[in-house]
Amino acid sequence: MLTLIYLIAITAEAMTGALAAGRRHMDIFGVAVIAFLTALGGGTVRDIVLGRYPIGWTQHPEYVLLVVAGGLAAVLVARYMRHLNRLFLILDALGLVAFTIIGCDVALGMGYHPVIIVMAGMITGIAGGILRDVLCNRVPIVFRRELYASVSLLVAILYLGLNHLAMPHDWNVIASFAFGLALRLVALWREWQLPVFAYRHDHH
Amino acid sequence: MLTLIYLIAITAEAMTGALAAGRRHMDIFGVAVIAFLTALGGGTVRDIVLGRYPIGWTQHPEYVLLVVAGGLAAVLVARYMRHLNRLFLILDALGLVAFTIIGCDVALGMGYHPVIIVMAGMITGIAGGILRDVLCNRVPIVFRRELYASVSLLVAILYLGLNHLAMPHDWNVIASFAFGLALRLVALWREWQLPVFAYRHDHH
Amino acid sequence: MLTLIYLIAITAEAMTGALAAGRRHMDIFGVAVIAFLTALGGGTVRDIVLGRYPIGWTQHPEYVLLVVAGGLAAVLVARYMRHLNRLFLILDALGLVAFTIIGCDVALGMGYHPVIIVMAGMITGIAGGILRDVLCNRVPIVFRRELYASVSLLVAILYLGLNHLAMPHDWNVIASFAFGLALRLVALWREWQLPVFAYRHDHH
């Protein structure tokens, strides 16, 4: 079940990555690279930071082909994607929660400290989008958008807390999804944002 | 032979990296760092992704000194380099093919899946240039230039295919070089480009 | 002693990272991420490059909490920080030297070649600031500021040289700090800079 959601999520992330590449007028190779990094970059950074080798997608070449295909498909259907905007926001929210839970599971299995487990969940959830934005030469949108990274943080804390309370894994996943999806969608709907820190004085 | 080409290639890549740093008015320390990353960054990213430790250049400090020297030399001869533009494009094409083949060899020797071997070749070929452009705060040129990353992709596939057909390594290297160099130089001459994906609607 | 300086330094680096995030109008989550990367990113890159697992901060979750707290505290006291500009420049110089020495020690303990040890010191000293600037979408300031990265380079060479001459570790640390701090502060005071390489001809 989590695997199916994961496959849907990396495909959706790849497609949104492709659109970001298109806004920079990249060629289709650049589109494929950005699609790959957006979808699989978060898990890659997590595995490197946790020292978990071999890295996930190197053992699943079919994931690589899937996200590249998703990115190229996005080029073909780009003109219709604006009508699917809401669908993609929901798939993106699904992906954010799925990535976060999977990241926590990986670090849990390696025996890391709870603070590091929460960070592993967040890295999996948001690092792909950060890599996409750095390669597209813009300030990462996850640092400025409606509650996004914070959803990942809260889902990771909830998931770890329920796990600590010995809730069965399946129920924990369902509860974390319900909470994370609801929070993200309400944040989108009500345009909830974290406080912004605007600093102007140039002290150097 | 491949080692000699590799040494020429990393020096040439370091020199072009130095010019990119000069366009951003960096100091000579920045020039040295960008030269290093352009020349050895691709192999570094490949080794980290494949989990191949120790990383190549940490066992070859002479490579580090060579590329830093190359970058600083470029500062001295910058005014003449425009006349050597064609020479550098040829050396850069040599480097692209050599890096790709070396990257494939590394992943082959570690027993990775063919899809991952091709990716290892491409990462070695293009990640250095991507790091250079990210640190110079511009959209990576490999995503927009005449056939470049695609040359790396096709060379990797050809090299792996001929290897699979049991062609002797030396012949395989020669065939891959002939194909890759010819394709890159014709692409430069005829200004072949991949289709560009220009996406304007801002769906966020 | 070195640990105490290290804790002061990562807190100070986190606070300056937070100000950089504030200049980009990031939300407080972005502030926390940039604070973390500025303070602990250098050690992370060093550990990944040297293949030293587990990575430092994953075994010290209290460091993660400290730098995040430092970053958020900077938001609260930002309006007073301009009056503390000199203090922060001194703390930043302390951090640069402390990071460099710690990085050299790590690579020394792993038996790397002297050239790689010097690079490990510099990576620890400056990579955090480079990550901060890349995520804030600007050309890394360490490539253009008054002697900064070069202070790290010279401290690393001095430290390694005195170590080679069998100077006791404590004396070596004191000598390296005295040299590094003095050099950095004089460079700030006299606005010493490395020569800048300005290259205008666009040869592509």
From TrEMBL, chains A, B, C:
Superkingdom, natural source: Bacteria
Transmembrane as UniProt keyword: yes
Keyword annotations: Cell membrane, Membrane, Transmembrane, Transmembrane helix
Glycine transporter domain sequence ranges: 5-78, 90-163
TM regions (residue ranges): 63-80, 87-109, 115-135, 147-165, 171-189
Similarity annotation: Belongs to the UPF0126 family.
Name of the protein: Membrane protein
Protein's organism: Pseudogulbenkiania ferrooxidans EGD-HP2
